[in-house]
Design brief:
single chain; mainly alpha; globular
């Protein structure tokens, strides 16, 4: 739907996130993989206009107790940071066409990834 509806689907992204976020920690691999693909589509389509909604959701996922949800959040954060990095690069090259990106969320996600990377798991 996001690819077809475009910007008119934006009001529903929050509802979709709330309803399927927990499914990435489902016991069945098929359910987890499909959910991860849906979330990647949402990120690819709405990373910039809804970055203030998506970044906190990913932050909460990375700090979750369930390892499957944490793993999915790290994968999705990588997608989000890659898109954000390209936007920041474009903004530096062409400041006359700014796209709003909350840089504090961007930095927070980088810090959380660093913390998770250096966290000792027993």
């Amino acid at each position: 739907m996001p690819g077809i509806k475009g910007r008119s689907f934006e009001p529903y992204v929050k509802d979709v996130l709330e309803n399927i976020s927990e499914l990435v920690s489902h016991d069945e691999d098929v359910v987890r993989n499909i959910t991860l693909r849906v979330l990647k589509i949402l990120i690819n389509n709405y990373a910039v206009p809804l970055n203030e909604l998506l970044y906190p959701t990913l932050n909460n996922g990375m700090m979750n107790e369930k390892w499957k949800l944490r793993n999915a959040a790290v994968i999705l954060t990588g997608e989000m940071l890659f898109i954000s990095m390209n936007i920041v690069k474009k903004q530096l090259e062409s400041p006359q066409n700014p796209q709003y990106l909350n840089i504090s969320y961007y930095n927070l996600n980088l810090m959380l990834l660093y913390i998770l990377r250096n966290d000792d798991v027993e």
